[in-house]
Each structure stands twice: as structure tokens, then as C-alpha cells.
Amino acid sequence: MKRKFLCALLCAAMTATMLTGCGEKKDDDASQDETNQEASNESNESSESNATEGESSGGGSELTVWCWDPAFNIYAMETAGEIYQKDNPDFKVNVIETPWDDVQSKLTTAATSGSYDTLPDIILMQDNAFQKNVISYPEAFVELTDDIDYSNFGKAKTAYSVIDGKNYGVPFDNGAVIACYRTDILEEAGFKLEDFTDITWSDYLEKGKKVLEKTGKPLLSCQAGESDVIMMMLQSCGASLFNEEGKPSMVGNDALKKVMETYAELVKAGVLVEVNDWDQYISTLTTETVAGTINGCWIMASIQTAEDQSGKWGITNMPKLEGVDNATNYSNNGGSSWAITSNCKNVDLAKDFLSKTFAGSVELYETILPKSGALATYLPAGDSDVYAEPSKFYGGDAVFSKITEFAGKIPSNNTGVYYYEARDAVATAMQNIVGGSKVDDELKEAQNTIEFNMEQ
Amino acid sequence: MSQTKSQKRKMSLEKKHNLTGWAFLTPATLMIAVMSFWPMVQAFILSFQTGTANKLKFDGFSNYTRMFKDSVFMQSLGNTFLYLIIQVPIMLILALILASMLNNKNLRCKGLFRTAIFLPCATSLVSYAIIFRSLFGVDGFINSVLIKLGILHTGYNFLGHATSAKIIIIIALVWRWTGYNMVFYLSGLQNIEYSVYEAAKIDGASPMQTFFKITVPLLKPTILLTAVMSTNGTLQLFDESLNLTRGGPSNATITMSHYIYNQSFKYVPKFGYASAMSFLIFILVAILAFIQMKVGDKRD
Amino acid sequence: MTKTKRANALMYVVLIIVSVISVFPLYWMVISATNKSVDVSRGTMLPGTAFLDNFKSLFQLQPVQSAMINSFKYAIILTVCALVICSLAGYGFEIYHDKGKDMVMSILLLAMMVPFVATMIPLFRMFSSAKLLDSTIAVIFPTISTPFLIMMFRQSARSFPHDIIEAARIDGLNEIQIFFRMFIPTMRSTYAAAMTITFMNAWNNYLWPKVIIQSDANITMPMLVANLTEGYVTDYGVLMLAVLLCSLPTVIIFFLLQKSFAEGITGAVK
Question: Are the C-beta atoms of residues C133 and A116 closer than 8 Å to each other?
Fold first, then answer.
């Protein structure tokens, strides 16, 4: 039976492909036509909804969007579409779910091969990658400086998408850093949430040691080889890995040195435990291996998957660095902004759509918050009643307005074009320092790596 | 007279066969030419250029000299060769042993064993990366076993130390690809008459002798195939480095292809440089494959 | 006698150990697919009760059906085309081998030695200027003819007895008939192995489809799995269910075909 099936399949294949095979041998043009025809049949087959981007944006009232999280930004985009539809009945958004990694590789591929026409009208871009992409491919994006009212957004947030004084992005989700603690575990060690509010890192270390001693639980966990914690600490005092001219500034960067020393001390004391991957990091939270975490406010969604821990968590601001100028208790990690591509055939529509929804509709943010936890960076939304709702999971605290308040106080930093290179270099340095190397040597090494990457 | 005639006929027949031979390989060759060689030529041209997107300009050999000054790339080169030298032989030998075990006529449940051993390469990378990371985690399964056995006192962070992380990558590779290579050996073994084995048995040959005197020599073409493929696969290794260790700790496990990927998509794109590094891989694989073919590809 | 018995027992022990190690991740995947995300990240090893919920939310969140159909479509078309084209070539290279053809073979082998990242941009440019993005052609064309498959068929054609060809020629079969009527049936085990491997590679292909596919309607299973790992929260139960669905077809194909390549009808050669 199986044998027959195999033979039949092969025979069918033979006949089918001998044709294409022969066509190819005869002459190239013929086969080219053939393939073109097949391709057009193909695209006809696969329904109108995926008519190519060029056509869809030519239609005038439809915008194609690349973004990636159905529970979060896709939902937000679709809701925005519905709100805009009320005044523009013909309007439609066509969201194509594309993970961030894929957005980046498609953008790079399209730009490098000069095929900008493969891009959609709007893409969602990680804030950290904004500078890199706009500077590398300036002709891929549309400037929005005069079309959006940027006074309604936090300064630090807007800064991510400003290049040479021009705005290229509409800020979307909030990456304001929060410190989350298991209040029940803190209590065991004799602490309250207030004892961890507006503190410094040395307070944190001392209190963390006590918590560890009494409960056996570290205060913080993070991924080894990723520099999230380092970058959060660094931005909390408004410092960056690059100076204003975009040159790497790791050597002689007092803030960075202090950050690295603090991090190493935390690890040494066992207050900060490093795990090897994201899923392990999440599991330290859900399995109660640690007493808290510090991350962008989007981490709440993952914390909340442990429903049995409801009421046991509390949220406050992060510790600040001591002895560093401009140090604050606020920082940012993650977040993204919308960008309009140069392939958009109806730029006016796209601008109008974004300015009336993501940059102009409190209703939008009120609608998406309860269902998705999508916290706005649009400041007027913070005053809304929906944001003042107490959250049962976090002990009845009005966490959303609290976080929106944090967001307004974040110092801005300069990601620079070579942000990802620098992040990796700093992470490498940090791993070596934890392994026993000297901070100064490693910073020098990291700076050399970046300078090497930047020459050319 | 008749002799020359038949010779002539033979000549023309040979010529005809020769042409038929070319006809057989034309479709495949043409497709490879268009889908691989043409892009390769373009990538080669690109490897002499620097800059991004449409701001490319020719810059001589600077990309090629650059990579030898690039300490991360040099480290990735070392890592990749370490994997190649240790992992490929272990994997191929293991696959050969398993295949000849499973070729045993009297073995029961062969289908189950075969499918089980093949499973790792069919299992999606996502799950296997998660599993390996959790197995070797500080409070993972391996550590708790070692602690129970009294070998360790506290959990060891296998993925956090350079040497152990490399070893884990090698274990993961062997685990994942042994079954894959076994498939080729199993199918190659079908071309060996079972009677050969029976004759050997009657002659009193031990299983060891049969393995080395019969199985290995007769499987030589297949072994060559898998050796060339594994060399190629290992030098282009990417998935394990990216998903298991993300190249860490401190680039101790990063592979060349992973670094090339970073330079193309994660960092500020340098496709010229990425192409140049790709061509170094090309040259290395080509040399190794050439040696392997010279050693192993003799028709008897 | 006892000696062979002991050797046999040892063999079973080895095989069982290897099998358990190999099967474990699949077991874990199945278990995880029945658990809630939080239990998966807590490292549970026992079956849970969330399978239906995971199933529902997976199908609600993602176009599983169309991704499955697409993946099957791409993988089957690719496998069939690849087997035909490459086995023809492999046969040609070995049976009619001469210096020239051996040379061509070595050159073809070079085609697989450049990392795909390098050739991807020129390929993309090619398909984009031919207006073929987002088409089946674009997904499968670059990997139809691979040096690897050609070499595999060439290596196994080495054991194909030349007597058969001679006999068939005397019987009046032409060359292409010999290939179809003699070579293919005899080499069934090679075809089955090649089919398994090619199907698997086609099914798991990720980097190329993700840049070439532009619309939700055309995505493949690996792309769907990638969709689930993005975003701020990963639901591990749902993810593992998707991963399971993504792994099963290859496993099933292997299971169905393994007899054909591992227990080929010895005797057909004679």
C-alpha cells in the first residue's frame, strides 16, 4: 500500500515537473513567462485580503500595518481603526502579524535590495531600533514633525524617534520602569513596600541582604548576557553609552562605572540572581523564587499570569544610584512607536489617522487599557478615570496612574545608531566583571569593540 | 573492418550516452546556477563594498582584512572549529553504530526505536532550546541529579561558564543530528546484501569485525556524503548558538554564522562585511570538502 | 549462546536509553501543551487539564489551519520537484560519469557552502523585481535543486549495478525508461530517505519564507510559532501546543516511510 502510494506520488511528480524542467531547457523566457503566470494565479488564489501592499495603499482608504502582538499592539491598532472609522466609514486597517525580528529583517532586506515597495504603510518599531533604522535608511520613512502634537507625550519617549531634530515616530506603548515586590515576602523580612520606595541602590542592597537572610529569596533576577538591568540603571540618571556626537563614551563614564560596580555587588551578595534565559526569568517570578523584579511596566502582564498570587504584589519606583549627577528613581525599558514608510501611497491619510487616534484619542487608550493592559505614553490619557481604577492584583493600588506619573519623570537618553552593538558589548563586559575582571579594563575593551564596529 | 565499424558504433553510442547524461543533469544544474551561483556572484561583488543600503561604495579588500582584526569574529571562528573537530566525528560514529544495530534482522520494535532516535531533529528548535536550558539550569534536572549523587554541592551554572556552555552545545548538536545522519546510513545499508552478514557470521566473525570489515567499507559513499554535509552544516551552524546560549557567556559559544546574522540584521547592517565573512566560510568548507572528497571519493 | 544473548540484551539497553533521551522533549512538549502557561514555567512534568483551553486560544489567535495547509503545500510541492530533478541529476552524474561531469559535480557542491544570509539579499532582489514576492514559486524555488540531494542520489547510484542497465538496453529500453522503470523502483530506500529529509527541511525552513512572505494568508507553521514567541507575554502552554502541531507532520512522515528506507526489499537489486 505504502509502496504504491510512494510510486504514485513520484509518477505524478515526474509528469508535473518534467514539464517545467523541459520548459526551462527550451529557453529561459518561456519558463519565465510560465512562472510569472503561475505566480499571478497563486496570488489570485490566496484571496483579495492579501493583495499586494502597493495596491492596497493605492486604494486610498486602506492602510497596511506590520505589528506583532495580538493581545496588545495588534488589538490597539485594530481598535484605533474602528475609532477612526466612525468619521471615515471607508477607512480600513489591514494588520499583518509580523514579529519584531521579522519586521527588522524584512525592513533590512527590502532597503538593502532597494525594494522599498515591499513595505507596508505603517510599521511598529522598537524604540531602541529607531535611530539605527532611520539613519541607515532615511528614504524609507516619512517625517512627522509638523503633523503630530508632541507636547502630549513624555519627552524621554519622544526622543527615541527624533533624528536630527526631526520626528519620525508616533509614540505608542509605555516602557516606564517599575519595581514590583512580593509584599508578603517583604513582610516576612519585616519590610513594607514603603521601605522600598524612593530608595537608593545601597539601601536596596542592605535590605536585600536581610530579605535573603530571613526568607532565602533574592530580591531580583535577570537574564545573564542581556543588559536590560544595566541600561535601566544607566538611563535612570540620564546617562548613555554614547555622547551627543554619537561617539561611544564608556571609558570615563562615571555613571556606567557605578552601574557596573553596583550590579557586580548585587550579584556577589546574592541579592540579584542571574538566570540563563527569558523563560527562566519569568519562572523565577511565577514560582516565587525571587521576592521582586525591576523591569518595564509591560512585565506586569507576565506577573499576572500567576493568578494565585493576586493581591500579593506591590508596585513602586526603582532605586536610584548614589553619587551620580542627575540620578532619579525613574527609567525606561522597551516600548515602541509607529512609523510611516515611504511606500505609503496616501501619506496624508496615514498622518491624519495616527494623529487622531494614537496621538489624539483618550477614548482609544481608555478602551485598550482594561483588556490589554496597554499603557499609554499619551499623557492626557493618564488623567482618565479608567487609569485611576484600583487594581486588585496589586493590592488595590491605582497602578496605572502611578505608572503614567512615573513615565513623565524619566530622563531621556541617547540610544545612538550603534545601540545594539553597545548593549552586547556592555553585556559581555558585565559577564566578565561578574567573573572577576576589573571594571576599567572591561569598559575599555567594550569601547574598543564599539569603535571597531563603527569604523568603516 | 568489422572491428572498426563496431568501434565507431561504440564511440557514437558512448557519445550518445554522454549527451543523455548531460540532459539528465541540466535541469538541476540550471536551477542551481540561477538560484545559487548568480546570487553568490552578487554577494561576492558586495563583499568588496562598504556602507549601507544604497550608499554602497567599493572599498577593495577592506572587508577581508577587517575580519582578521575583529576579535569577536576570530573567537567565533575558533568556536566553530572546536564544534567541528569534536562534534562531527562523535555524531557520525554514534549514528553508524545505531544504524547497524537497527539493521539487525532479529531486533524487535525496530520501527519504534528508529522513530524515537529520529525524533530530535523533527522536534522544533523552540521547544528543544527551552528544554536544554531548563535541564542544565542552576536548579535544573542535571544539577539535582549531580547533587544527589554527591558530585556537586551546589548547582553549577552550566550555561554561564565558557567551557561547560561549549560542551552543552556539542551535546545538543549530537543529540539533535545523530538520528538525521542515521537515516542515511539505514538507507545505505539496504544496498548491502544481508547474505554478506550471514556469511560473515558463519565464518565466525565477531560483531566488531563485521562492523569494521563489512559495514564501514561498503557504506563509504554514504559516510562521505554525511561527512561533507556535517562539515558544511557545522561551519554554517547558527540555530544552536542563537537559541541555546545566544552566543554567550561573553561570546564563548557564538558561531560564525550567528555573528554574520548579527552584523546583518541585529546591528547596523554591514552586508558587505557579512558577505566577506560568508566567503571565508565558503573557502574553509570548500577546502575541507575537497580533502574529504579526495580521500573518500574513489570509485573501486 | 549466552554470549550473544548478553550482547543482545546490551543492545536493547543501549537502544532504550538512547530512545528515552530522544523522546523526552516530545513528551515534555505534549505535557506542556496540556498545561497552563504558569504551570509550564513552573516546570510541571504531569499532564494538566488546560489542553482544550490552549487549543481554543491557539486557534483563536492564529490562522493555524491556513498555516498548516500552506506548510503542507510548500513542503509537498518542493519535495516532489526536488526528488525528481535531483535524482535525475544524481543518476546522470554517476551512471554517465566522466571527467567533465565529475568536475561539474564538484562545482555544484560549492553552491551550498556559502551561508544563506549572504545570498539572501540578491535572491530577494531577484524575486522582488520579478514581482514574485509572496508566491509559492518564491518560497520553493531556491531550494528545489540542492547539491546535497544530488550528491545523495549520486552516492547511492554507485551501488546500482551496471548489469541491469546493460540488460535493459539490450531489451530495447531507452535511457529515460531505464531511469524510471529500473532505477526508481530499485532505489526505493534512497527515495524514501530523501523524501523524509527533504520534507523535513522544507517544513522547517524559516529564514527565507519569513522575508519572502508578505501576507498573513501565506504564512507557514514555523512562522506561526515565531508569532507566538513575540510580544510581552508568552503563553507557554499555547506555544508548546503550536510547536507540537508543527513537529508532528515530520514525525508522521518519518514513521510511515521508515520501513521503506530501512527495510528496502533486498532482492530487487538482483
Answer: no
